[in-house]
Design a protein that fits this description.
This protein folds into 2 domains: 122 residues, 3-Layer(aba) Sandwich (Rossmann fold), CATH 3.40.50; 197 residues, Rossmann fold (3-Layer(aba) Sandwich), CATH 3.40.50.720. 46% of the residues lie in helices and 15% in strands. It has 14 helices and 12 strands. The chain is globular. The two termini are 30 Å apart. Bound molecules: nicotinamide-adenine-dinucleotide (NAD). Nicotinamide-adenine-dinucleotide (NAD) binds next to α6 and α7. The site of nicotinamide-adenine-dinucleotide (NAD) has 25 residues, from α6 and α7.
Length: 350
Amino acid sequence: MNTHRLHAHELIEQYNPEEVHYFYDPTTRLKAIVVIHSTALGPATGGTRFFPYTHWELALEDALRLAQAMSYKNALAELPFGGGKAVILGDPKRDKTPELLRAYARLVHQFNGRFTTGEDVGIGPEDLREMMQETHFLAGARGISTDLSYVTAHGVLHGLRAAFRFTMGDDNLRGRRIAVQGAGKVGYHLIRLLTEAGAQVFVSDVDARALERVQREFGAKAVEPNAIYALECDAFSPCALGGIINDQTIPLLNCKIVAGSANNQLKEPRHGDRLHEFDILYAPDYVINAGGLIAGVQDLLGGSLEKALKEAEKIYDRLLTIFEISQRERLAPHRVADRMAEERLRARRP
Ligand code: NAD
């Protein structure tokens, strides 16, 4: 996020979206921004974030950035959807009321399917259920909703297997040493899947309860939060925070692969180039973590959890293609992924 604040129109031009909407509802005091970044590949979809932004330009910038990221993510997940995002300005703990959620849902309904939305920071499954009273243009509010993070973990598992196949010529995870940062919703499922596949799992978490649970249930070995970066392992799997691949952590890494669910793992794009220089294979975050999105879209289209899991397995081939192009063109995988997404969007721009 820019520390130097740009004017709204400069920000909008920088991201070049198709539409930006600002809504204010005097009855509930709902303040929301909806950005439709691209409908080149289909109607826009992206979660709604409810967050106490200190300035409205920060909210606008977040919505613009996240909507663009959704266009790229949908394009590379080969989903018939474009990219959009909404932010509600306010503190969810204080300002989230059923009336406000319903007012917001009515405005989502006005888009008549051109924008569909779902969970993000500050908006959970119970909020979507409230919103269902007013609109059906919601992803993840029906049957699959509780399993989104399970499908994400399933996709990450297949992404890790693709990374092993590419670096070591074999995608069998038996005996592989894998360090997972974060034993939350995704990390928990991933650790279970990795253990079932015979991997040796190391885990860090700042939440003692989450850590204890995966130790007890799966025999994962606990590591101090700051020690996880330097741990000697085959793969490091960030499943907690963004920005953790940076100038401080890259020199510490003692692995061949970085592949996990966390969003925005690279502090800046240049950190992906450094991983490439150091011969550490990076699975671009928005490609490997698309399982939740894939499940949300299946939910929207009335599909099943089984279908979502099958679709998430395609992350394996998608990543292999990116890794092969990266090797051939000596271009870091995150650059290859961005370029592929931009080409797909350009090719279909109406
Ligand atoms: P979560 O909040 O359930 O879990 C995150 C875990 O990380 C928590 O247990 C937390 O205690 C731990 N954590 C926080 N700081 C840490 C630190 N410094 N070191 C180690 N652990 C730390 O979140 P989640 O849903 O499991 O998502 C994890 C990541 O994956 C997030 O970046 C999220 O944006 C991304 N993601 C999630 C999904 C999904 O389906 N849930 C989909 C795509 C991307």
